[in-house]
Amino acid sequence: MAASGSGGAGRADNGYGSQQPRRRKGPGALATTYLVIYNVVMTAGWLVIAVGIVRAYLTKGSYHSLYYSIEKPLKFFQTGALLEILHCAFGIVPSSVVLTAFQVMSRVFLTWAVTHSVKEVQNEDSVLLFVIAWTITEIIRYSFYTFSLLNHLPYLIKWARYTLFIVLYPMGVSGELLTIYAALPFVRQAGLYSISLPNKYNFSFDYYTFLILVMISYIPIFPQLYFHMLHQRRKVLSHTEEHKKSE
Amino acid sequence: MKHYEVEILDAKTRDKLCFLDKVEPNATIAEIKNLFTKSHPQWYPARQSLRLDPKGKSLKDEDVLQNLPVGTTATLYFRDLGAQISWVTVFLTEYAGPLLIYLLFYFRVPFIYGPKYDFTSSKHSVVHLACICHSFHYIKRLLETIFVHRFSHGTMPLRNIFKNCTYYWGFAAWMAYYINHPLYTPPTYGDEQVKLALIIFLFCQLGNFSIHIALRNLRPAGSKTRKIPYPTKNPFTWLFLLVSCPNYTYEVGSWIGFAIMTQCLPVALFSLVGFIQMTIWAKGKHRSYLKEFRDYPPLRSPIIPFLL
């Protein structure tokens, strides 16, 4: 017979999930070293992309079709960000695996499954729009992490991270949406990544419809993330203000 | 008899919500919850989580006041679990959906396939068999919910019903669309494949049912006792020798059978997702068993013999 014993606070409840308070351990010395190296490399990588865009612009004299000059480093460093999912999974970074996976996968999706796969959109100005937004955001984000890990975060970087998104985020989203929209007719025409009935696995997938659903999903997701960042901004920047005032 | 005093504070704000005096020492948490509801009727007992420590685990309804590590003035912390819905209601809703939805596709009601297919019937025998199997599966689940299962918890959070129904109804519609499609392609190895799949399916349905009956018999009506399940005379229950949750093992087997029968990728994906979820549940249950019972059979693994 299952005895509940003297204390009532026994085991985890089925319907409500486990409620043990978790003590979060920071990354050890080895993990910290690795993360510093990772974040430095990523900062450098996105700086390379930034420099590449500027040089290409100066060389060509116009801002059209600059994608080709930074195509390879963009693919390399954006895809490299997949490692961040593992960082969360192994607990050396205290973020949610699901949230991080979602964010990284959406970037990787745009890089490979839209821009790379639909060659006809690579000339579009919308590509430049999101590449610039991503580049500035990532340079700031990775240097923010680097300095945080070294416990020496300049206020400027913290301010930049929690302020520039106000413009960069809508800019990036616009670029992304316009690019997907531009890709649609070519996807339809080529039947890209699509499979239709009949086939022996009794399955169908219409990439054109899928892209439209992706675009629609921005409507609920973008405001939530944007307001979350605004909320974080208020918390983080006002907290620093209080610290400064008390000095 | 010395009476207890019980004060109930909000776990987050520490506000004093309720003060009960002259509480019997042998009062249960369930009775205290009922008393609390009197002063705060919007918090019916199912929504209440009472604990000894604001960040600790919930006390159980069966816990008796005088057996708790409290003085004669007990302080309990309250957390609102949010709107609740009964397990029975959730199960009935989430299972009735797939039953009906699949039939809509089977009978090819208008607006699903082209107008020339409305209310037509598939020419493949496996499609009719699949409908029978799918319907049988969900009718079995509905009947088990009403007559067999003895739930540990009365309720779960209300938002679960939306999450669960989306999952079951969504997948049912997705599968049913392809199986009953005018362009459906029957299995590559024909009748042999369907026959084998049907045997697997029926075997696992019987197995799953046998486990549900065995689990029911472990627990007297209206109680919440927990015991180690053991094999009975029914050979299907002998899987308990190797596995903690053979009901899940058989369930995965049933869907694999159905996937082979229909040779339909969405069915295979549904089986995979279900397998992942059931593995998570089985591992949790297995861990609970190990924690609760010193003499738990060491040979058992959570869901797949020797492997998982």
Automatic annotation (TrEMBL), chain B:
<dbReference type="GO" id="GO:0006665">
    <property type="term" value="P:sphingolipid metabolic process"/>
</dbReference>
<keyword id="KW-1133">Transmembrane helix</keyword>
<dbReference type="GO" id="GO:0005789">
    <property type="term" value="C:endoplasmic reticulum membrane"/>
</dbReference>
<keyword id="KW-0521">NADP</keyword>
<dbReference type="InterPro" id="IPR039357">
    <property type="entry name" value="SRD5A/TECR"/>
</dbReference>
<keyword id="KW-0007">Acetylation</keyword>
<dbReference type="GO" id="GO:0102758">
    <property type="term" value="F:very-long-chain enoyl-CoA reductase activity"/>
</dbReference>
<feature type="transmembrane region" description="Helical">
    <location>
        <begin position="235"/>
        <end position="250"/>
    </location>
</feature>
<dbReference type="InterPro" id="IPR049127">
    <property type="entry name" value="TECR-like_N"/>
</dbReference>
<keyword id="KW-0472">Membrane</keyword>
<keyword id="KW-0560">Oxidoreductase</keyword>
<keyword id="KW-0444">Lipid biosynthesis</keyword>
<feature type="transmembrane region" description="Helical">
    <location>
        <begin position="196"/>
        <end position="215"/>
    </location>
</feature>
<comment type="function">
    <text>Involved in both the production of very long-chain fatty acids for sphingolipid synthesis and the degradation of the sphingosine moiety in sphingolipids through the sphingosine 1-phosphate metabolic pathway. Catalyzes the last of the four reactions of the long-chain fatty acids elongation cycle. This endoplasmic reticulum-bound enzymatic process, allows the addition of 2 carbons to the chain of long- and very long-chain fatty acids/VLCFAs per cycle.</text>
</comment>
<dbReference type="InterPro" id="IPR001104">
    <property type="entry name" value="3-oxo-5_a-steroid_4-DH_C"/>
</dbReference>
<feature type="domain" description="TECR-like N-terminal">
    <location>
        <begin position="5"/>
        <end position="80"/>
    </location>
</feature>
<keyword id="KW-0443">Lipid metabolism</keyword>
<keyword id="KW-0597">Phosphoprotein</keyword>
<comment type="pathway">
    <text>Lipid metabolism; sphingolipid metabolism.</text>
</comment>
<feature type="transmembrane region" description="Helical">
    <location>
        <begin position="85"/>
        <end position="107"/>
    </location>
</feature>
<dbReference type="GO" id="GO:0042761">
    <property type="term" value="P:very long-chain fatty acid biosynthetic process"/>
</dbReference>
<dbReference type="Pfam" id="PF02544">
    <property type="entry name" value="Steroid_dh"/>
</dbReference>
<feature type="transmembrane region" description="Helical">
    <location>
        <begin position="166"/>
        <end position="184"/>
    </location>
</feature>
<dbReference type="GO" id="GO:0030497">
    <property type="term" value="P:fatty acid elongation"/>
</dbReference>
<protein>
    <recommendedName>
        <fullName>Very-long-chain enoyl-CoA reductase</fullName>
        <ecNumber>1.3.1.93</ecNumber>
    </recommendedName>
</protein>
<keyword id="KW-0256">Endoplasmic reticulum</keyword>
<feature type="domain" description="3-oxo-5-alpha-steroid 4-dehydrogenase C-terminal">
    <location>
        <begin position="155"/>
        <end position="308"/>
    </location>
</feature>
<feature type="transmembrane region" description="Helical">
    <location>
        <begin position="256"/>
        <end position="281"/>
    </location>
</feature>
<dbReference type="InterPro" id="IPR029071">
    <property type="entry name" value="Ubiquitin-like_domsf"/>
</dbReference>
<keyword id="KW-0275">Fatty acid biosynthesis</keyword>
<comment type="pathway">
    <text>Sphingolipid metabolism.</text>
</comment>
<keyword id="KW-0812">Transmembrane</keyword>
<comment type="similarity">
    <text>Belongs to the steroid 5-alpha reductase family.</text>
</comment>
<dbReference type="Pfam" id="PF21696">
    <property type="entry name" value="TECR_N"/>
</dbReference>
<keyword id="KW-0276">Fatty acid metabolism</keyword>
